[in-house]
């Protein structure tokens, strides 16, 4: 799915700043002086492109493009300007600004943004031409070494849509299949976008799993398409009427499709029920008692993945306590699952201190204990903290909520839907 450019820029900046500075130092033959902020003061506050360019030129005169801080700032400004030119259809000006980017990795990021805008303007042939060599290179690296998965994923968010516009479902499948299977039957970009987007604003058509499923169906692999869409639903990644209708539309395409869907759904639910059994056998709560999921049948159960070190997790606890007080007598229970990063004795101390300080009164489990026998975090495909997974009264997953941002509203809304105001 596609993130807005502003959100994408923030994510890329926070994740890539260290790698960027390392690349700059490797490419430099001589250490450059540190240039302090404020470079580009006011650049992101103005809307019009000429104003941005004016601020860029003025800043460049005052603060030359030398040093880590300045180079990072100017690089993202160049990407921003190139993207704005692409939005207006001026691809030549966009390309000229991309040429000013000194590091290949970030030049490629600029190409991706420009291609995305050109694709939206209907210039899919151009977008395919400029992205194909980048995506092919990332695909080869990923297939050979398993590296660059995140970067490959981000490029496929745009490139899959380009290929769809150019009516090339076979190529979509060839690129996305290894990425999907190598990422636990999900795409990092989908999980992140759902976490950042309000449920009401989320567009299923931008979901990479949905694009992949459509391409599978168009290439005659309808059963595989049903599996992809069904897992998206049954794993709790997305549980909407629109998705359920999309699954139904697929299974109605083939003889016996409905029966195939129900058998597959049953098999997935059986797998998750088996996980709950293994969880109960291998984990004890903070008081040394086994976790009894049988006693929780008939209740909606929240698996809350957190850690004492996780600021956003701890910040979510006051609201979670409010919800627990409101709904615990209406058939709602919580099982907290903490993951710590120290040696086990220290982990237990940090964990129990956090439980006491935050005033958590529901069942708590430390994943680090008996992790070799059953790793709850891994088994439930948790890759970000906090993550909350909601189970129905039969232990089936009906929701997965990542982070505390816009997408997190879905959890509170879901409880209102199930248990009332």
Summarize it.
This protein has 421 residues and is an alpha/beta fold.
Strand content: 5-15%
Question: Could you give the order of strands across the largest sheet?
Answer: 3-2-1-4-5
**Based on the structure given, which CATH architecture of the domain at 285-419 is correct?**
3-Layer(aba) Sandwich
**CATH domain fold name of the domain at 285-419:** Glutaredoxin
Percentage of residues in helical conformation: 55-70%
CATH class category of the domain at 285-419:
Alpha Beta
Task: Please tag this protein with its features.
421 residues, alpha/beta, five-stranded mixed β-sheet, 7% strand
How does this structure look, described?
The chain is an alpha/beta fold. Among the domains are: about 5-125, no CATH class; about 285-420, Glutaredoxin. It is about 60% helix and about 5% strand. The chain has helices at about 5-25, 50-60, 70-90, 90-100, 105-120, 125-145, 150-165, 170-180, 190-195, 210-220, 220-235, 240-250, 255-280, 310-325, 345-360, 375-380, 410-420, and strands at about 300-305, 330-340, 365, 385-390, 395-400. Strands 3-2-1-4-5 form a five-stranded mixed beta sheet. Strand 1 (about 300-305), helix 14 (about 310-325) and strand 2 form a beta-alpha-beta unit. Helix 1 crosses helix 3 (about 70-90), helix 4 (about 90-100) packs antiparallel against helix 5 (about 105-120) and helix 5 (about 105-120) crosses helix 6 (about 125-145). Residues about 1-35 have low confidence and may be disordered.
């Amino acid at each position: 799915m596609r993130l807005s450019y502003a959100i994408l820029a923030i994510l890329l900046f926070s994740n890539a700043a260290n790698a960027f500075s390392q690349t700059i130092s490797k490419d430099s033959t001589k250490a450059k002086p540190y240039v302090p902020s404020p470079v580009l003061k006011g650049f992101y506050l103005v809307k019009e492109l000429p104003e941005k360019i004016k601020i860029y030129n003025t800043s460049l005169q005052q603060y030359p493009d030398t040093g880590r801080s300045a180079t990072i700032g100017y690089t993202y400004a160049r990407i921003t300007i190139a993207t704005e030119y692409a939005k207006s259809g001026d691809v030549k000006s966009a390309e000229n600004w991309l040429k000013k980017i000194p590091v290949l990795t970030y030049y490629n990021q600029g190409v991706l943004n420009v291609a995305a805008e050109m694709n939206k303007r209907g210039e899919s042939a151009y977008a395919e031409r400029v992205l194909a060599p980048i995506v092919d290179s990332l695909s080869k690296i990923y297939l050979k070494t398993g590296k660059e998965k995140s970067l490959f994923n981000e490029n496929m968010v745009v490139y899959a849509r380009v290929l769809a516009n150019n009516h090339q479902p076979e190529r979509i499948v060839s690129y996305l299949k290894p990425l999907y299977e190598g990422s636990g039957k999900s795409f990092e970009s989908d999980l992140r976008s759902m976490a950042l987007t309000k449920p009401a604003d989320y567009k299923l058509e931008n979901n990479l799993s949905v694009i992949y499923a459509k391409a599978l169906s168009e290439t005659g692999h309808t059963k595989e398409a049903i599996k992809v869409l069904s897992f998206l639903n049954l794993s709790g990644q997305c549980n909407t009427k629109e998705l359920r209708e999309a699954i139904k539309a697929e299974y109605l395409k083939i003889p016996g499709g409905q029966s195939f869907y129900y058998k597959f759904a049953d098999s997935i639910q059986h797998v998750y029920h088996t996980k709950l059994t293994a969880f109960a056998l291998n984990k004890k709560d903070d008081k040394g008692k086994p976790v009894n999921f049988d006693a929780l049948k008939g209740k909606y159960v929240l698996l809350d993945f957190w850690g004492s070190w996780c600021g956003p997790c701890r910040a979510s606890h006051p609201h979670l306590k409010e919800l627990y007080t409101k709904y615990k007598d209406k058939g709602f229970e919580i099982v907290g699952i903490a993951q710590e990063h120290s040696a086990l004795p220290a982990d237990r101390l940090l964990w129990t201190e956090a439980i006491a300080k935050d005033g958590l009164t529901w069942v708590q489990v430390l994943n680090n204990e008996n992790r070799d026998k059953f790793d709850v975090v891994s088994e439930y495909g948790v890759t970000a903290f906090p993550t909350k997974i909601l189970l129905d009264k039969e232990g089936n997953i009906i929701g997965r909520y990542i982070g505390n941002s816009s997408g997190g509203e879905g959890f509170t809304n879901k409880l209102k839907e199930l248990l009332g105001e």
